[in-house]
Write a structure and sequence with these properties.
The chain is built from three helices and 26 strands. The protein is mostly beta strands. A 15-stranded mixed β-sheet has the order 8-7-6-5-4-3-2-1-15-14-13-12-11-10-9, with helices on one face. Strands 18, 19, 20, 21, 22, 23, 24 and 25 form an eight-stranded antiparallel β-sheet that branches. Strands 16-17-26 form a three-stranded antiparallel β-sheet, with no helix packed on it. The model has no long low-confidence stretch (mean pLDDT about 95). It is globular, with a radius of gyration of 22 Å.
Length: about 350
């Protein structure tokens, strides 16, 4: 199953998405719960994260975890409760592995939401949950206290919830009062996140994404998620961020109403539209260089389209982008992969092109 919560600031501006999923899996012949978290934040540059925890299916003790973030780095942890220790490594760095003693069961920080779902929440419930944060503080006891039972409204609907306060991190979570204990809302560090979508990732199933206002649609494979940027009257564009499994690149669908585009030259052909958009990209992407032999003509949704590949830098790291531009009668569109490592482009492009094949617009 998956739960997707959209992050907003106090004024309601969307700034990101949290996507939690859990599935039954096997690890070295052992039955486990595999828990995955995606963090996708629009602020702060390329601000993305992904974590994975495998936990024993019966005891729920973590076996291994991986935390990866574009700004913080990567941390892996391996738990051995028989030996009473956890070993932490930081791939890609010169840091030596470190070991911490675990005198009791500690739950990995990245499985925390799922641990809270398993607690016998009720009015007046209070407990301490031992958490291990491999990428930061290490061992910490989280005090969990149900402070109220209340009905709240979120984009996904109305839910009766237990309001759960966490100390010392000073965060508040709302979990449904039914047997599922779905996370419906949380507040932390001035940010609010509310449940937008809830469902199951079924193999070979696709989820349709429709936008009647801008007149486009596409189909997302299971385990892909999407987040729309906040719209405004003075910004006649729809930007949708597609979150891929692993969150290893940035995928964006941009749709403009053609009558809002002031540059008449840009509306003459798909190639002209591409050149117009790339002129803006060169101001935003460091040392962007278009590969001259990468231009391709095609059709998308029955409309003329062109695609191109470009190389650029993020800091000193080499990245590659791939964009498909199409010009319809009512819309001009750009479907783009950014922040992709060069050695992953072929695989990412193949998966993205399958989604582009489902794209429809007017």
């Amino acid at each position: 199953e998956f739960q997707q919560l959209t992050e907003t600031l106090g004024g309601g501006l969307k700034i990101g998405s949290f996507d939690w999923s859990v599935e039954s899996a096997r690890l070295d012949g052992q039955d486990v719960w595999r828990m995955t978290t995606y963090r996708y934040v629009l602020a702060g540059g390329d601000n993305r994260g992904m974590s994975l925890v495998d936990a024993d299916k019966q005891k729920f003790q973590p076996i291994r975890s991986s935390f990866r973030h574009t700004l913080i780095g990567t941390t892996d942890a391996t738990y051995d409760f028989d030996a009473g220790k956890v070993t932490v490594t930081r791939p890609g760095t010169e840091d030596a592995p470190r070991s911490d003693q675990l005198e009791r069961t500690y739950y990995d920080n990245e499985q925390g939401v799922f641990v809270f779902r398993r607690l016998p929440l009720a009015e007046g419930f209070q407990a301490k949950v031992p958490i291990y944060a491999s990428f930061g503080a290490g061992k910490i006891d989280i005090e969990v206290k149900v402070v109220a039972k209340e009905t709240i409204e979120v984009p996904a609907g109305s839910f009766e919830c237990y309001k759960v306060h966490l100390l010392p991190v000073n965060q508040t979570f709302w979990h449904t009062a039914d047997a599922h204990r779905y996370l419906v809302k949380f507040e932390a560090a001035g940010v609010t996140a509310e449940l937008e979508r809830l469902g199951q990732n079924k193999p070979d199933e696709v989820r349709p994404l429709r936008d009647d206002t801008f007149g486009f649609s596409l189909d997302l494979p299971a385990s892909w998620y999407h987040m729309e940027e906040s719209a405004s009257e003075d910004r006649p564009i729809r930007m949708v961020h597609l979150i891929d499994p692993g969150a290893t690149a940035v995928h964006i669908v941009g749709v403009w109403k053609t009558d809002s585009i002031k540059n008449d030259e840009a509306k003459k052909s798909a190639r002209a539209w591409a050149e117009h958009r790339l002129s803006s990209a060169k101001k935003e992407l460091k040392e962007l260089q278009i590969r001259p032999d990468s231009w391709e003509q095609r059709k998308v949704s029955g409309w003329p389209a062109t695609s191109v590949i470009g190389d650029y830098l993020v800091g000193e790291d080499k990245k590659v982008g791939y964009s498909v531009f199409l010009l319809g009668e009512e819309t001009a569109c750009e479907l783009t992969i950014l922040a992709c490592n060069p050695d992953q482009l072929d695989r990412k492009r193949a998966a993205f092109d399958k989604i582009i094949e489902t794209f429809q617009t007017k």
